[in-house]
Amino acid sequence: MAVEVRAHITGTVWKILVAVGDDVAEEQTVAILESMKMEMPVEAPEGGKVASISASEGQAVDEGDLLLTLE
């Protein structure tokens, strides 16, 4: 079952820390968002393998936008 990792704030994707095919652990930081000069980590809600990445570094995102999918 796929798990969607979504932006929890409106901001800019500062860094994507994983690649498609990477295994990630629950609560592992998978991306960093920047908002108002603050860096906010985005953590995986559960462990899995990165199936797809829907955002790119430098992209503006709104709260709730899809960042990546785990399987």
Q: Summed up, what is this model?
A:
By secondary structure, this protein is mainly beta.
Order of helices and strands: EEEEEEEE
**Per CATH, which architecture of the domain at 3-51?**
Beta Barrel
Overall pLDDT level: 97
Number of alpha- plus pi-helical segments: 0
The CATH class assignment of the domain at 3-51 is Mainly Beta
Named CATH topology of the domain at 3-51: OB fold (Dihydrolipoamide Acetyltransferase, E2P)
Q: At the fourth CATH level, what is the homologous superfamily of the domain at 3-51?
A: RNA polymerase II/Efflux pump adaptor protein, barrel-sandwich hybrid domain
Helix content: under 10%
Estimate what percentage of residues fall within beta strands.
Answer: over 45%
Sketch the major β-sheet.
Answer: 4 strands, antiparallel
Gap between N and C termini, in Å?
6 Å
- Gyration radius over CA: 11 Å
Spatial arrangement of strands, main beta sheet: 1-8-6-3
**Classification by helices and strands:** mainly beta
Strand element count: 8
Unreliable runs: none
Looking at the structure, what is the overall shape? Answer: globular
